Amino acid sequence: MSRRLLLLLTLTCAVGVGTVYFPQAVSPLVGAALHESPGSAALVVSAIQIGYTAGIFLLVPLGDRLPHRPFLVTLLALTGVGLLVAGCAPGLAPLIAAAAVVGVTTVAAQVIGPLAAGLVAADRRGAVLGTLLSGSTGGMLLARTFGGTLGEWLGWRAPYLAAGAVALLLAAVLARALPVTAPTSRQPYAALLAAPLRLLRAEPELRRSCLYQATVFGGFSAVWTCLALLLTGPVYGLGAHAVGMLALVGAVTMLCTPYAGRLVDRVGPDRVNLGCLLGVLLSAAVLAAGAGGGPAGPAALVAGTLLLDISMQSGMLANQARVYALRPDARSRLNTAYMTCAYLGGSGGSWLGVRIYGGTGWPGVCVLVAVLAGIALARHLVASRGPGRDARQAGDGGRGDRCASASVALPPSPRLSKQPVGRRAF
After folding, report:
1. CB–CB of 9/15 below 8 Å?
2. What is the pTM of this model?
3. For the purposes of burial, counting CB atoms within 10 Å of the CB of 32, is it exposed (0-12), middle (13-18) or buried (19 or more)?
């Protein structure tokens, strides 16, 4: 893979993931412009996250069935059109509907990962996937700055219209730049959809990773959805751009995730997960100190969100390492199961966070984060009674992968089985 193509795919990941997150910073502007309550306006955020979860489950498995170039171009084109429709929505109900459609189609980042893994040799795969993850992380963080700042200057519609234009431009570029690929599976659509569910039922380590990420991402989404309400409310009285500026602090996460990946390789995912869950618990306490405003309030919010971002992203790396070790021949379907559960947790956390904020304020949201992290930590402590799991997974030279792959019978792809790993002929 050329550097130019890698840069283009990284940018596409950033735009795709950023589309899910910039509405968090714009939500207060939507409520004020459309004369809706903050809780009602926040439904736009929940709608796009629910749509994204549905898109991961319904569309990402097609990455094994359809050629990547037309598939990705179509997804980006639909995302662009949906964003333009959202930016022109006359009221809240049409905006929520358009946001849900955009969420379903903006799953390009989840399709690009398997595509990139097949375009490079095995000894470069980790570096390439790490670069793509940095792009996704950067898109997630910078999207709030983009949405809040542009929305503050030009109104809430401007971020939607600008993002729609960028998505359509990327679709046109990818139509010419992406290589031609052959599908790796001929399974019917129903079989592709059923495979993640069968894997969830058969793989306890997959279920455990899904629980960790669903709970942590639920708390993460609750914090960032309600943070806009806190900063623009009477305690701080700031504009929507303040949410975007606060998100810039999280750019440090882009520097931490490569180190977290190397740490997973050295000590195993379980130890990294333990540190991340403890980090989320600590972040809840730090964030709670920002409820009262004053001189210490902004510092607490900065430190708490930074700790939460680093813990969530590093935990995601650890969970993915555990999940990908289960079935090397079914990583796209494993990723579908894992990410679907993660975003179901995120959608639920966003929805629940808004309602808790309306009843108990910011301290209630921080309690929610602590409770969710506590659930995952309790499950982790139970799992840690089986010593040496990570050492066996990391040190068996792949034998654990092959043994685990026998636990679920998924039809092999004839086309894939004839090609050496990491060097598909495109």
Report:
1. no
2. 0.71
3. middle
CA distance 356 to 218: 13
- Reference 23, options 108, 103, 134; nearest CA is 103
Are 95 and 103 in contact by the 8 Å Cβ rule? The answer is no
pLDDT tens across 162-206, in order? 999 999 999 999 999 988 877 777 788 888 888 888 889 999 999
E strands in 189-328: none
Which residue type does 47 have? A
pLDDT in tens, 210-268: 999 999 999 999 998 898 889 888 888 887 667 667 767 777 777 777 777 777 777 88
Are 422 and 122 in contact, with CB atoms under 8 Å apart?
Answer: yes
Q: How far apart are CA 223 and CA 217, in angstroms?
A: 10
- CB neighbours (10 Å) of residue 409? 9
Residue 15's Cβ-count burial label (10 Å; 0-12, 13-18, 19+) is: buried
CB 177 within 8 A of CB 8: yes
User: For residues 70-93, b (16+ Cβ closer than 10 Å) or e, as one string?
Assistant: ebbbebbbbbbbbbbbbbebeebe
d(CA 84, CA 206): 37
> What are the φ/ψ torsions at residue 238 (nearest 5 degrees)?
-100, 170
